[in-house]
Write a structure and sequence with these properties.
mainly alpha, two-stranded antiparallel sheet, 9 helices
Length: 286
């Protein structure tokens, strides 16, 4: 006896529902695991960064009693900062996919990563527009021996995190107002991380040729002013080019809109704690 029309339509519907449910479950697992790893890694960072637990310090403390343990911890610390930033960028990207859709997320990520890489490459090789600086190898593998691969990832985290924070504060906002808010938050984040990245972790070096161009003069303790002006201008430009996806505006999951904000907040909290611990330690010295 042939199947009725109801039977022929029901079976595929059940199969499609099961297939969709499986994909949704796999998607949740794909998104959830990097988030858990990032939180654990960040928790370790709240111990490592404020107390400057560098590879050299670990080797000095543990050698020669535990050579294998020392080598393992030293190797982990060597890649810890780059891994942390990679995890942050991955989680921000997944949240953007969930909130804006895959097509928009790819477009945004491509624009931010490519644009920031071009800006930073020009800056590191010419000194324009940020000022004279060079990158070291302490923030991940340097592309072309110039730019650490983590720097464009940091731009992605800061820009999309700031964008989400502004929209959480003021959902109804014009594109220009949003870009201004993003640029302001990005500059504040840059001020917060500059001295940690420069003086504590050594991700980059400001004024690399200072002793040659200004013999006898002390090295400035602040980055050049144009660094912060350039950050504002370039972040404004990139943020202005990222309009939201109108069709997903009413269906964005709450976690996806908040997670970039949480990541940016944890980043700034970590840097602020590092400033505080270093200030307390410096104040306690005779």
């Amino acid at each position: 006896m042939p199947f009725s029309s109801a039977e022929t339509t029901t079976a595929p519907s059940v199969q499609n529902f099961a297939r969709t449910a499986t994909r949704a479950r796999l998607a949740r697992q794909l998104v959830g695991l990097p988030w858990i790893v990032f939180l654990v890694w960040t928790g370790v960072g709240f111990i490592v960064l404020p107390f400057d637990l560098s590879e050299a310090r670990v080797r000095a403390w543990l050698l020669p009693e535990h050579p294998q343990l020392t080598a393992a911890i030293a190797a982990l610390l060597r890649v810890s900062d780059a891994t942390w930033m990679s995890l942050a960028a991955l989680n921000v990207y997944f949240a953007t996919v969930a909130s804006e859709g895959l097509r928009i997320a790819r477009r945004w990520a491509g624009a931010i990563l490519l644009g920031s890489a071009v800006f930073e490459w020009i800056g590191a090789t010419t000194g324009l527009p940020f000022g004279p600086y060079v990158y070291t190898e302490r923030f991940g593998l340097r592309l072309g021996d110039v730019l650490p691969f983590t720097i464009p990832l940091a731009w992605l985290v800061i820009l999309l995190g700031a964008r989400a924070a502004v929209l959480c504060w003021r959902p109804a906002i014009t594109r220009t107002e949003l870009a201004i808010g993003v640029a302001l938050l990005a500059v504040l984040t840059d001020v917060n991380l500059e001295f940690i990245a420069w003086n504590v972790r050594g991700y980059w070096l400001w004024y690399p040729h200072w002793s040659i161009t200004h013999p006898g003069l002390p090295l400035p303790s602040w980055p050049p002013w144009q660094n912060f002006v350039s950050w504002f201008a370039l972040m404004f430009l990139l943020a202005w080019t990222l309009p939201a996806s109108a069709e997903l505006r009413l269906t964005r999951p709450a976690w996806a809109t908040r997670r970039p904000v949480h990541i940016l907040g944890l980043m700034n909290a970590l840097f602020l704690l590092t400033h505080l611990v270093r200030w307390i330690r410096a104040s306690a010295l005779p």
